[in-house]
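Something for you to look into today, if you have time. Just paste the record in under my message, thanks.
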Amino acid sequence: MKLPGPDPAATLGSLAGLYDGYEAYRRTEPEELDQVVQFGIVALDTNVLLDLYRYAKRSREESIKALEAIAPRLFMPAQVQEEFWRNRDQVIREIVRRNPLAGVRDAKRSALAALSDWGRNTMSDDDVDALKKEMEATFNQVLAKMQPSGQGLHLRAALSDVKADAVLGHLEVLFGGRVGRPFDKDRLVELVAEGRARFARRIPPGYMDADKADQSEEGTGDFLIWEQLIAQAKEARKDIVFVTRDLKEDWWRLDAVNSPIGPRVELVNEMRDRAGVRFLLAAPGDLWDVVSEKFKDVPMSQSTVNDAEQLSEDADVDVLLPWSPGMWEVLLARLEESGYPVRVAVLREAAGDPDGFIPRQRVYELGEYDSGRLLVGFTRPIAGATRDLIASGDLPAGLEPALRAQYLKPGKAEGFVVPRSVVAATAHEVS
């Protein structure tokens, strides 16, 4: 006997599918990002712009070429402009302070002077000169391999004279006529109040910065960026991607190890409802990867992509702590239970190597990856798990990154490397 109910044929046109209205739960496909980068709006967060100072010379040059290739698509919210100028000087001072080359150059001068003093009474001038040349050549080899932040920039001069700042020169051209106008005073007051009210209900974005009430915008900076992204997308009637290395939960949907999956569903829905367009989020490495793929005249080495990835993981870490065997196992257990067995296998195999190294090809074998696949974002779940364990108190803050890409020269990574403390801990356990 047929049960009573609506005729499927009669009602099919009025029914929806599982994802209708919930499209944000789908993973963003690379092709979607490709389309927005080529035909939509690309907005960069403040941290992406300031990272141009933090990059090594080659990474900075390649990143700027990539931005030049998509210049017609670029847009800078007024709040990003405000934060850039607010933080620029401090970022430059930090880079100058941390620059390891200065210490090595000082050591070189001291060593050469000491060698001259010692050799004056112990050997001939020719022998001293030969030793000094040998020592200088060794120091120069080391210096040549070091790629510190700000390399190729006159940062000390840039602090006193903007004309000496090559980064500013490029940004001025890239964003000429592409910066949003600030909200007027009355509207800004309204938006700050609205942002604070949203934070109380944990409506994204920006509620993770609610404690920054001492800022002029009372911690609502990300919300102000969001409001101008919506306004720009609505006016242009174009899909928009916001590129940021901010991996906090008030922008991203995160998985079990705090690795980003995609934009918050609320953000996707709000952009669709208010502007009628799609909203995407991307990490800087994803943007560089797409540009290099779609614009063949813009070479982008894998080292530049990974420089962007690494800044997301440890740009603000001053002191790097070693790993103990117990800490390492805590990390591996979290990755295993969160569904990342390939990362666990890579970490274990690298830890068992005397140099802590695992070749790129071996990663492909362990993951059974297609040879054409890029390893962009491979370390993100590992970094996310580490951050999550630090937040919960299961690991201490300031640990060395558990896995880094390793290069012998710019280009594709030769492989990945774990910290020496992990190798030592593993060897101790085996013995």
Strands lie at 41-44, 74-75, 240-243, 252-254, 260-263, 279-282, 357-359, 404-406, 415-417. The radius of gyration is 25 Å. The chain has three domains: 22-96+155-291, 100-145, 317-430. The first strand starts at residue 41 and ends at 44.
